[in-house]
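Minutes, project check-in
Item: structure for the 138-residue chain
Input as provided by the requester:
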Amino acid sequence: MTTRTLKRNIFQRILGIPATKPPADPGCWEFGDGSLKIDLSRAPELSEPFGALHLESEAMPTRVMVMQDGSGGYRAFENKCAHAGRKLDPVPGTETIQCCSMGHRTYDYQGNVLSSEDDIKVRPLTVQAEDGTLVIEL
């Protein structure tokens, strides 16, 4: 299977700089009682297909990358590449996510690695949409 890769320069890859950014409105999300809640009205990054953002705080047990997929649904993943621990990005126009490192490691939406012979997965998270709010259980 041939996989598409995101276009990044060599410095972005060496330094592990992801394309996915934190939200412009840091008040669009909150974490408590093991759940991450995102107010979609305050997260325009998630309003378009393949739009994404990454969320992290010392209070959370892991970093999270959340995205809108190509069919208007939402996906979330533990934002940690199984290869090098780097951050993940969606690959627009595909049903894949990719690590921001030199290796171009690519995963499907179930977390399976597609671009390597090993079988180390990333962890997809359950996302529920409730009245304009995404709820992600960590």
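Outcome recorded: The chain has one domain: 10-137.
No further action items on this chain.
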